[in-house]
Design goal:
The complex is a heterodimer. Chain A has a domain of about 375 residues: Hydantoin permease (Orthogonal Bundle). Helix content of chain A is about 75%, strand content about 0%. Chain A has 23 helices and no strands. In chain A, helix 2 crosses helix 15 and helix 3 crosses helix 19. Chain B is mainly alpha-helical. Chain B contains two helices and no strands. The N terminus of chain B is likely disordered. The chains are: A mainly alpha, B mainly alpha. At the A-B interface, helix 1, helix 7, helix 10, helix 13 and helix 15 of A face helix 1 and helix 2 of B.
Chain lengths: ~550, ~50
């Protein structure tokens, strides 16, 4: 039996529609807009990448965004701010609330490691503005990469032979970043998150425009722009390029995290979610394609030459952000100011996302367990701090990567698929459609009905299956096993692999200078995530027990 | 190491220039996104204005 929260109980709300759109856009705009997108575009056909990219935006991103807004506003009508209650209102089944628990667990697990990465941007902004980034004067491109690589590894404490990662500096910046997040969360939705978005988003855009103009006026920058935009039509028939585009659209809009539903639950029933969803998506695209496409890769190409830009694009997001870009700014006259602005804009992109990711857990504690806002914020802060310690200390053994794979990638797709099935199939597509259209000033085009019902779940399944084959199977079966000369983890039996890991562990116990195999760290990360999931589900159970007791009291 | 290898192997490529196709895709994408952003934000700001 579905339980309901008393609608008259006061819930938080947005101060203005602009604040809501900026907060939603802040949720979507993250580090990926400035670091992942341009490298992905350059690698996947330049201008031609935009064809599958925009088609994915229209067929997957925008409709799924509307679905998440629809789910959130529908749940909010009954006083629910998080997906356990929302799912239960749409699917009267005892499993619904537990499936909805994923919408609290995923963003919580995500925000724990994301805040750590966000703290690097603060650290680098401060180091840039105080001229603490090493000089690369007179160095070749490769030496400059190495200098910045060593600097990053010294900052994170991942280099050298030290057993644990994490330096005092990285930990201090993490503590400050966490404290800022918790302070803003404790100020509430309108007084904290919305206010931060109203300050952070315009500043982010302003700083990006300043840095973008500086980059585009560098000699050779147009070579980098050409690298991002010149079309390579041979890629258009490559299925992997289409999947990369669909994946980028999914992740850039922060879909599947549960945070859009929570933000949307605070809007009034007659608010236009079609317009606000579209405004959020378009602002994210503005930050990604126009601003993101004009900074990092063009800067890298201008500074290191287009040949290096190819290598940089292939080297990944972190290398681009924390190795290549500091090298670029270090070599520019007045580069410390532009570097400071660049990392500050990344910090704003990061914090507006981390606040959104923490909000489902906040809302659950406040609305379902009736915990006061400041206490809830403090509780989440303590949990994040404790949970982040192993991520910081064991980063060099793949602890953070493991969190990123499950909470930042795989489970997002799973959650989005569950949500679409519940909303469009169990709740029924016609009702869902009417729900989304309520209060809409701009008409929801009719052709989106079959897209939402058939195309969106199908695309999610394709991305999920591809991801499963490419990453999940190697991650679960083989990732933790080491290769030995003449011995392959792919062909060895499970028993042989396990025996090998235990043998390495035994060696570590006897000789503590021998490394403990990554096996234990990777499983440690998985067990930590499992503990957080179990805590979340137990809290969902407790909350529902309370609701039931309350409804029985009212009935009596 | 990989970066060093690619740097050596691709430095001879020279600086590419924007082709007509590159300009067409870049300008097309910019116009599409800017139009969508301006359209949606004018509506959002209009609604906020009315609510006041």
């Amino acid at each position: 039996m579905a339980t309901e929260i008393n609608e008259t109980e006061s819930r938080e709300g947005w101060g203005s529609q602009l604040g809501l759109v900026l907060a939603m856009a802040g949720n979507a705009v993250g580090l990926g807009n400035f670091l992942r997108f341009p490298a992905l575009a350059a690698k996947n056909g330049g201008g031609t990448f935009m064809i599958p990219y925009f088609i994915s935006l229209l067929l997957l991103g925008i409709p799924l965004m509307w679905i998440e807004w629809g789910v959130g506003r529908y749940g909010g009508k009954f006083g629910y701010s998080t997906s356990p209650g929302m799912f239960e209102k749409m699917w009267n089944h005892r499993a619904a609330k537990y499936l909805g628990g994923l919408g609290i667990f995923i963003p919580l697990a995500f925000v724990i490691y994301y805040t750590y990465i966000e703290s690097w941007t603060m650290g680098y902004a401060v180091m840039s503005l105080t001229n603490q980034i090493p000089s690369i004067e007179g160095q070749t491109a490769q030496q400059a990469f190495d200098t910045m690589g060593n600097h990053l590894s010294n900052y994170l404490g991942t280099g050298g032979t030290a057993l644990l990662s994490g330096t005092a500096m990285a930990v201090i910046f993490f503590a400050i970043t966490l404290a800022v997040n918790i302070f803003v969360l404790s100020r509430g939705l309108a007084g904290g998150i919305e206010k931060m978005a109203k300050i952070g988003m315009p500043l982010l855009i302003l700083f990006a425009i300043i840095v973008g103009i500086r980059v585009l006026t560098l000699p050779g920058a147009m070579g980098g722009v050409a690298f991002v935009w010149n079309p390579d039509f041979s890629k258009i028939t490559d299925g992997a390029v289409w999947l990369a585009a669909a994946g980028q659209i999914f992740f850039t809009l922060s879909l599947g995290t549960g945070s859009i539903e929570t933000f949307a639950s605070y809007v009034k029933e007659d608010e236009d979610i079609v317009l606000t969803g579209l405004a959020t998506s378009s602002m994210n695209e503005f930050c990604e394609v126009i601003l993101g496409g004009s900074i990092s890769i063009p800067a890298a190409a201008a500074f290191f030459g287009p040949g290096a830009a190819t290598a940089i694009a292939q080297a990944g997001t972190f290398n681009l952000g924390f190795q290549t870009m500091p090298a670029v700014f270090s070599g520019l006259p007045g580069g410390f100011i532009f570097g400071g602005l660049f990392f500050t804009l990344l910090f704003f992109a990061g914090i507006t996302s981390s606040l959104a990711l923490a909000q489902p857990a906040m809302a659950f504690l406040q609305d379902e367990l009736k915990i006061k806002r400041k206490t809830a914020a403090l509780g989440i802060g303590v949990l994040m701090l404790i949970a982040a310690i192993p991520i910081i200390m064991f980063m060099k053994y793949g602890f953070l990567d493991e969190f990123d794979f499950w909470a930042g990638e795989f489970l997002l797709l799973v959650f989005a698929l569950i949500e679409v099935i519940i909303f469009m199939w169990i709740f029924k597509a016609r009702r869902a459609w009417e729900e989304m259209r309520k209060g809409a000033q701009i008409r929801l085009p009719q052709f989106y009905f079959p897209i939402m019902k058939y195309v969106v779940p199908l695309l999610l399944i394709v991305i999920l299956v591809k991801g499963t084959i490419d990453k999940l199977i190697p991650a679960v079966l083989f990732k933790t096993w080491e290769d030995l000369p003449g011995w392959s983890k792919a062909t060895a039996s499970a028993g042989e692999r396990l025996a090998y890991e235990f043998a390495l562990t035994g060696r570590h116990l006897i000789d503590n200078t021998a490394a403990l195999p990554n096996f234990w760290y990777i499983w440690g990360a998985r067990i930590e995530m499992l503990i957080i999931l179990i805590i979340t589900l137990v809290l969902v159970k407790i909350a529902w027990k309370k609701h039931r007791q309350k409804s029985e009291e009212v009935a009596m | 190491m990989m970066i060093a290898f690619i740097l050596q192997s691709t430095d001879s490529l020279g600086h590419p220039e924007m082709t007509a196709g590159g300009w067409a895709f870049a300008i097309g994408a910019w116009i599409f996104i800017l139009s969508l952003t301006i359209f949606t934000f004018s509506k959002v700001l209009g609604k906020d204005g009315k609510n006041r």
